[in-house]
DNA sequence: AGTCGCGCCTGGCGGC
DNA sequence: TGCCGCCAGGCGCGAC
């Protein structure tokens, strides 16, 4: 499941093949994704060039002079560049043909992903309501302390809320809370300032390390039909319920929080 | 306004 | 072997 590091790695991998390329064809085989794919608008873009590939949270933007094709990879999506024809498979929903002869192909078995259209000058409300990027200075200790103030929601859910900060999915939330020594169930407003400060640092550290690793494990976005090697990095708690804590050896606990699996060490995280 | 629970979807897995 | 049922999970939305 792509989290922010995978999305950023996708952006970097795809950008050089797409930037300054004119769109020559758009084929939508499956318009039913998270929201209906705006097929007509996409078709009308043929002849325009992609000026830039940017990212906000887990959303990717293929920017043209008229606006941006906004792509979210959901749980199971991937984007890759094909430099020669490859027979589309069952889950290859959209092909974006480029003047170079290459093709940008969106694959998404579970179709939790989405493709939207954002006209130039009109930010989608779902984008404008997003919190700061976790790797910028706007996401700092003071900010998180402020947003946690008086909140009864569990700190894990707060940090996974994209209106608070973008790009922290379930896996990295588990890992960051472990690194910061915080019980994921603790009401956000009751987590101490020093711990929130550590949490901000942990999120930045984990996400940037994952992006760095993504550069090596997910390097090949061209012509590869293999699955990208997500999460090659070692995880301390996620997926390790019942196994010993790497720090204190106590058996890791698993609970469900908002229908998501949450793993933590009840000794190290309080 | 904050919090909670729902639903979208399918590959993979455990159980029989 | 084959089939069935269940689960994961991002995230916007509607309900309280």
UniProtKB/TrEMBL annotation:
What function does the entry list?
Involved in base excision repair of DNA damaged by oxidation or by mutagenic agents. Acts as DNA glycosylase that recognizes and removes damaged bases. Has a preference for oxidized purines, such as 7,8-dihydro-8-oxoguanine (8-oxoG). Has AP (apurinic/apyrimidinic) lyase activity and introduces nicks in the DNA strand. Cleaves the DNA backbone by beta-delta elimination to generate a single-strand break at the site of the removed base with both 3'- and 5'-phosphates.
The organism's taxonomy opens as: Bacteria, Pseudomonadati, Pseudomonadota, Gammaproteobacteria, Oceanospirillales
Q: Give every FPG-type domain span.
A: 236-270
Supply the SUPFAM superfamilies for this chain: Glucocorticoid receptor-like (DNA-binding domain), N-terminal domain of MutM-like DNA repair proteins, S13-like H2TH domain
The family database entries (Pfam families) matched by this protein are listed as:
Fapy_DNA_glyco (PF01149), H2TH (PF06831), zf-FPG_IleRS (PF06827)
Tell me which residues make up the Formamidopyrimidine-DNA glycosylase catalytic domain: 2-113
What Gene Ontology molecular-function terms does this entry list? class I DNA-(apurinic or apyrimidinic site) endonuclease activity; oxidized purine nucleobase lesion DNA N-glycosylase activity
Q: What is this protein called?
A: Formamidopyrimidine-DNA glycosylase
Reaction(s) catalysed by this chain's protein: 2'-deoxyribonucleotide-(2'-deoxyribose 5'-phosphate)-2'-deoxyribonucleotide-DNA = a 3'-end 2'-deoxyribonucleotide-(2,3-dehydro-2,3-deoxyribose 5'-phosphate)-DNA + a 5'-end 5'-phospho-2'-deoxyribonucleoside-DNA + H(+); Hydrolysis of DNA containing ring-opened 7-methylguanine residues, releasing 2,6-diamino-4-hydroxy-5-(N-methyl)formamidopyrimidine
Cofactor(s) the protein requires to work: Zn(2+)
Location of the active site? 2-3, 58, 260
Tell me the protein family, please: Belongs to the FPG family.
Q: How does it assemble?
A: Monomer.
EC number(s)?
3.2.2.23, 4.2.99.18
Q: How cofactor binds (record note)?
A: Binds 1 zinc ion per subunit.
**List of residues binding DNA:** 91, 110, 151
